[in-house]
Amino acid sequence: MAGLVPVSQWGLFPDGDRPFVVAGPCSAESREQVLEAAAALKAAGVGVLRAGLWKPRTHPGGFEGVGAAGLAWLLEARELTGMKICTEAGSAQHVMACLEAGVDLLWIGARTTANPFQVQEICDALQGTDIPVLVKNPVSPDLDLWIGAIERLQAAGIGKIAAVLRGFTTLEKTPFRNAPVWEMSTHLRTRLKDLPFFVDPSHIAGDVKYIKELSQRALDLGACGLMIEVHPKPQEALSDSAQQLTPAQFTRLKSSLKVRSAVSSDESFSSNLEMLRSGIDDIDSRLLSLLEERMRVSRSIGSLKKEYGISILQTGRWEAVMDRLRKEADAIGVDKSMVEKIFSIIHDYSVKVQE
Ligand code: PEP
Ligand code: MN
Residue 56 Cα, ligand 2 centroid: separation in angstroms? Predict the structure, then answer.
């Protein structure tokens, strides 16, 4: 198992650069677009250019990337700007093409991390190299799947690894494209203490309007790096158009971000506290969205009862619900009296919306 190497020793990011930033278009679309993005990002002080060549699309028929042909554009951008280059590898073939071209950094996408067969195939192709790899979280909030991908890389001899939180598909409604579930990063870092941690606010947000708050939140939680989508003309982008910043927006964002200074014992207290509080905020938001969902179902029950002329209050049903909840609370070690209090309030409001 390769030991984890701090990002400052990867030799990719400019000295003193904090946070570490990987930025660039979602997809490489043309030579001109890649070179224009690179020039603008170089001017904004970015050291590592990203652009997807092979795009994993949910539906067939979308823009699936320019493929290996785009490698030449990335190489030219590196040649012209001195930036390092980074792209997504989703198969052994992609890895081989990137290694042959001399790409500096790879990322494993969320859909790939979710598949151990694919991750293993990638790791086999990486064996014997020491290229740095960013591992996005899997699409579902499955911590072990994420950790498993990192372990496979380490087993293949890769030590320059960072995790990238890019949000999760959840049933709960959130304002974002992918729910951040910040506490997953807390759990991840508890399990793998030296693992560098990045956040990709673009894929969490799905919309440029949330990128600033998500980026700052990421830094407050102790992320050392950010991956951000920037496109010279976002409105014309062939993928992820709504979430890509213009270079000017990116420059403003970069200068607005506040990085917490290095650790003293006091600061480690406050950053831990911040992380835990963020976990609480997240859980509260999810409770709220579950309450909203519950009220909606309750309203539908109200309509159904009305249609069939059934009375709203059916005490037998409520007793059964409470009974089940008390048992479940007991089983998972939650205070029964708290559960009774909370659910009787929820029940009162539920009856109210049915009226
Ligand atoms: C991307 O970075 O453009 C991408 C496809 O990311 P993800 O795998 O996080 O969806
Ligand atoms: Mn994208």
Answer: 9
Residue 275 pLDDT greater than 70, yes or no: yes
Residue 262 binned pLDDT confidence (cut-offs 50, 70, 90): low
pLDDT on residue 267 = 66
Distance CA 225, CA 160 (A): 14
Helices 265-307 and 183-191 cross at an angle (nearest 10°) of 130
> Which residues make up the environment of ion ligand 2, defined by Cβ < 5 Å?
26, 240
Which secondary structure element, helix H or strand E, spans residue 49, and what is its range?
Answer: strand 48-50
CB distance 353 to 295 below 8 Å: yes
90 neighbors 68 (Cβ within 8 angstroms)? no
Question: Which of 136, 231, 243 for a ligand 1 pocket mutation test, highest count of atoms within 8 Å of Cβ?
Answer: 136
CA distances from 119 to 63, 133, 156, 165, 294 (A): 23, 12, 11, 17, 38
Q: Which of 187, 218, 185 is nearest to 201 (CA)?
A: 218
Please state, in angstroms and rounded to a whole number, the distance separating the CA atoms of residues 7 and 247.
Answer: 25
Average pLDDT, the chain: 94
Tell me the pTM. 0.80
- Nearest residue (CA) to ligand 1, atom 3: 26
Strand positions, DSSP E, 118-266: 133-136, 161-165, 197-199, 225-229
What CA–CA distance (Å, rounded) separates 41 from 104?
17
Residue type for position 138: P
